[in-house]
Model the fold of this input.
Amino acid sequence: MADADPALLGTIETPALLLDAARLQHNLQRMARQMAALGVRLRPHVKTAKCLEVAQACDRASLAAGVPGAAEPGPITVSTLREADRFAAAGWRDITYAVGLSPNKFAHVQRLLEAGVALTVILDSVEAARALAAAAAAGWRRPVQVLVEIDADGQRAGLRPEAAELPAVAAALQGPGLRLAGVLTHCGGAYHARGEAALRAMAEQERAAAVHAAARLRAAGFEAPVVSVGSTPTALFAAQLDGVTEVRAGVHVFMDLMMASLGVCRADEIALSVLTSVIGQQPQRGWTLVDAGWMALSRDRGLAGEFDDYGLGLVCDAQGRVLGEGGGEWIVSAANQEHGIVTHRSGDATRRLDLPVGTLLRVLPNHACATAAQHTHYEVLGLPGAALQRWPRFAGW
Done:
């Protein structure tokens, strides 16, 4: 990473969301090379970035690495139908909405289908399948593809791979306006697995669960051409993905302190940070006050309850270098709405970050998705031929 021009950083009003283009590109290339080596399509999850330019960079990295099925625009995953609307309007057509579908979204789904989007939705019960089938049969002119969500680890939604009702869900999806496409799973348990061996085991657990569920559907006489898995940790640590057709990952574009805690990345590979200014001191308390509070950083504490406690974020200098001997000594230990409190990680009030008012710092996020959600745009540093660019992001449902 080349140092940012201090004069350039000084033109940015704080707090601001910074995106390091070199680190972004490094992260995209790493994932693309992994998917190319495993021979599996990458369907990036755009919920992390919610940004057209980042999605375009994902597509270019996949094409350059020779990822199967790569295109520009390529397949994407979304977590809101608003994301689907925005990306569809910009030319993306192969979209998976990877949140269980409720009936109050059926009309929105129909609008996307009629706009020419090849939309895939997910569900995990006979009840939900019957409701969708009834809506589609009422006159949907374009079919919706459906993936049955599989629970690979007991962390969230989905049917267990061996669930008795799995064939019944598939049977309820046979009708006009529907196409059973296969299965989808997300192994959230990977966010509790630290180190290479544990992450590789979770990746295999995720793969095996999805492949087993798809095999059961096929044995029952149903087609299941799509076997979709993925999270950033499992995608990057999978040793093999036999039987899997696509991988979904999102936070890999930026990385964050949760990924660093798990051993997925280093702190100096995190592409996202919040630029903040020192606005005061409370020497008797060991506090340095900055203008990035929880409205800029979010309240997400990452994996503080299990692994590394970085408070509300890890403090770096203006160039993005972690502060302290050996790094990792200074954190945002607490925050009000617009005030952040920087202290030594040890809690020792005699060790204060004594910096003048106006000093610029960066704060690395615990959870990139949550921190980015607090901002309307990225200030992008390090793009070829450009001193600074602003990339908009969007929010809402």
Summary: The first helix runs from residue 6 to 9. The domain at 23-252 is CATH 3.20.20.10 (TIM Barrel). The chain has a mean pLDDT of 96. DSSP finds twelve helices and 17 strands in the chain.
